[in-house]
Design a protein that fits this description.
Order of helices and strands of chain A: HEHEHEHEHEHHEEEHHHH
Number of helices of chain A: 11
Shape of chain A: globular
Number of strands of chain A: 8
CATH topology of chain A: UDP-N-acetylmuramoyl-L-alanine:D-glutamate ligase
Radius of gyration of chain A: 17 Å
Largest sheet of chain A: 8 strands, mixed
Distance between the termini of chain A: 10 Å
Oligomer: homotrimer
CATH superfamily of chain A: Ribokinase
Chain lengths: ~270, ~270, ~270
């Protein structure tokens, strides 16, 4: 692994462990448990709260805000917008996971609204979600040529339009501000067979953004951590069940030795 | 294991793995994570979405629709009915899990309404849920003699009335269209100590119904898969915690060898 | 371990296993799965139901009612109050977990309302939650001197005001009726890195309160069970992922031998 990436990752992880940043998640029902466990495993402090009666105050005491529309409904979307306003007033980073963008018109409308109102500093999705998201903020409606644009081009375009760092999860993860592109080559295919791995990545982005003011550096550290922990866990996992558990164990124990296990194999 | 059952199960599982059918779940909060992981482990593609703003469109792009009333509330029930209408318009099978049927009047009313409006092609529950369900669609009110009817008789009656395949989970699973009865003798008692195993069975029924147009054949394959994976996992599980994980691993790795482990012991 | 504590714990656990009390949980989305699995592992029968259309009837057939405000919203709070009224009418114990008390004004208002309306017989939280809760029921507004009160003093005061047993989870757990104080010294630090361990403790308190009419004795048995199972599981857990699973296995297999593993080390 590149020495700068390694140094930054270990420094940011140490900062998370020593300061336990409160990460406020307004996320989906499927992954709340995974997300909370992953945040605890790396030393962060998760809180899940979605009621419009309290999201502004909760976001105001948090160190970052993670918005995830996996199981969205109108009340939750209103809560996301209120929480994001509060986060911006306090200068707290907002991370956005457009789960299922492109699947329904409602989801697309909500994505466009969240991009406009919540101004995330980091957006993470898979290739097709990022392509959908890029289209959804075009003022002239759906760009029919977008089908031929690959996800990375869409990510760059989205990054510039949304003034955010865009992360595409995939076999290789891409992280871009619209100009430069960073990559994370680590990971394992079996990670796609554990529900919520993408959502976990987004939550971990929230923890790193809480301790590193550079969103692109935070994103590179977070995605590298996910990839290395996943790749190491996959080596000794018997199936997708044990993978979920071993992944948390690797996050919990993550240190220089974890990285060296990957480097030795290359 | 009977060679036809084995051949059909492996053929259907291969179809799930190669086509990754999208299974739309409107299910309960307790089991969403298990359900999603079990569907991923067998190669299906789960989506959880419950908002009335999008369920019709989501169901229309799915290959099957799974309705589960474990933690029901009025909005969710409306979403189930809208999604089921959409599923019927697209010719997609609807699977129904009447969790807790019989426990409250509200649950019974909802069950009767779902049976009438959502026309499931497969219904799965435990014995007492099936007995309750059978009663709830009797036009003359609760049948006081139903107490003496065993669950299998109720299942047959329900299958005829609802024009659905009815599956009773238990020590032996029964699968009936009201006339013939198929059985799955595989499984393990410890499966009852892991929450959501029944709900997982229902979701897996959804995946099999997506690839096999015969609901009784799909149900037999799905319940046999559950039973065999559970029985094999139980052999080496230390308790109900590891059982949950080992079960997912067995689903993930399921093949002819898994079945042979059961056959050897008999 | 003290012989009386040991004898009572094993007797209460045996009662749970032989009678499978129905524990009705109105709890948060993050921990529903853990909570259900922990209750199943000790032999209880969990049910999660939150709709105002059915909570009164569900509570009326349960053996105890557990209220947890982790991911609260107005509808859920109304359901808690309705369910508690029903529980009181049936003489069923109510257990309350004030998750995040003190974090927002809304949470504090809800806590005060639940204390007044739901009259829990056992309240469990961490130190800062108990201090917040104690303040929230003072008639003269927030007591500015409360900052200097340690959690145990707040717990005693709360116990007397609320006429409840108060449990503080921490490195050592304290259990008080306002006069006497019992302690549980067992446990492991890694338990704080698994989400929902506190919520699981509260649910287990519900199971023990269902079989033991003395809330202080039930609380001491429940917290001792949690602590011993956690301490034993921690000895062979590689990280926070495997800890979650091993803890459930230890609950599932808990018996005199589990306790002797702790005693041997002292």
């Amino acid at each position: 692994m590149n020495q700068t990436i390694k140094k930054n990752l270990l420094r940011d992880l140490e900062a998370i462990r020593s300061t336990s940043p409160l990460v406020h998640n307004i996320t989906n029902y499927v992954v709340m448990n995974n997300t909370a466990n992953a945040l605890l495993a790396i030393g962060a402090s998760p809180v899940m709260a979605h009621s419009i009666e309290e999201v502004e105050q909760m976001a105001s005491i948090a160190s970052s805000l993670v918005l995830n529309i996996g199981t969205l409904s109108p009340n939750w979307v209103e809560a996301m917008i209120l929480a994001a306003e509060s986060a911006h007033n306090k200068g707290i980073p907002v991370i956005f996971d457009p789960v299922g963008a492109g699947a329904t018109d409602y989801r697309n409308d909500v994505c466009a609204r969240i991009l406009r109102k919540c101004k995330p500093s980091i957006i993470r999705g898979n290739g097709s979600e990022i392509i959908s998201l890029c289209r959804s903020i075009q003022t002239k409606g759906v760009d029919s040529t977008a089908n031929s644009t690959d996800a990375l081009e869409a990510a760059k375009e989205l990054a510039l339009k949304a003034e955010a760092i865009v992360v595409i999860s995939g076999e290789i993860d891409y992280i871009t501000d619209g100009q430069t592109v960073e990559t994370n080559p680590y990971g394992a295919t079996i990670m796609t067979k554990v529900t919520g791995m993408g959502c976990t990545a987004t939550a971990i982005l929230g923890a790193f953004a809480a301790v590193n003011p550079s969103p692109i550096e935070a994103a590179l550290s977070a995605m590298t951590l996910m990839g290395v922990a996943g790749q190491v866990a996959a080596c000794y996992s018997k199936g997708s069940g044990s993978m979920q558990i071993n992944f948390l164990d690797e996050l919990y124990n993550f240190n220089e030795t974890t990285i060296s296990r990957i480097d030795e194999k290359q």
